[in-house]
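Hi again,

Forgot to attach this to my earlier email, sorry! This is the prediction with iron/sulfur cluster bound. I've pasted everything inline since the attachment limit keeps bouncing my files.
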Amino acid sequence: MEFRRDITKPWIRSEPEGYKRRRAHRVLARLSRRYPGAKIALRYRTSMQLLAAVIMSAQATDKKVNEITAALFKKYKTVDDFANADPRRFAEEIRAIGFYRQKALSIVTSARIIREKFGGKIPRTMEEMLTLRGVARKTANVVLGNAYGVVEGIAVDTHVRRLSQRLGFSTEDDPVKIERDLMRLFPKKDWFTLTYTLIDHGRAICTARGRKCSLCPVKDICPASLV
Ligand code: SF4
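Structure tokens for the complex follow:
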């Protein structure tokens, strides 16, 4: 796959910016029709649960996280519930997920920071979100967008990263640089939808294991389908 992307890189780099923007608009329009109402797959009831679920979802599937949180979130609902937890005990409760010790520490510590510095409310800005433990731009974008409808950027997870590269929206590997490229290409009103639409397409057709280009609604405007 890396080889294929390398072939398309010169083509992607030479694509005029205006043309790329129009192509990006057409890609999103078609994928939005294929995946109407695309939305976050993690299950939660409170903003703190959302934050915990997103931290847990790093390098894990949403399905796995939902399996664990189905029972976990009956016990942990509020910021206080998470802040009062013993990190080691909490880690045992999520041990079915990868990096559980690190994630447990991030969740409990973040809850304590939220209680102490933000009056028990999940922060509403990117700058504040980034002061929490284990929270980078992807997590912050997901939480801000879903909890408050605050859109400061574009959440770039593994699917968004892969599709942005295959679709020729970015030649970068670093999620922060990919996010910057996407923010230049798409109008702000589309940023939130873009993430979940690309994720749905990345799960259904353009998967990490392979691309089903013949079934793809954007095959005629995707550089990766040409190689
Ligand atoms: S045409 Fe192929 S590579 Fe491009 S988005 Fe569709 S499935 Fe992915």
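The chain has two domains: 2-34+154-226, 47-136. The longest helix spans residues 17-34.

That should be everything now.

G.
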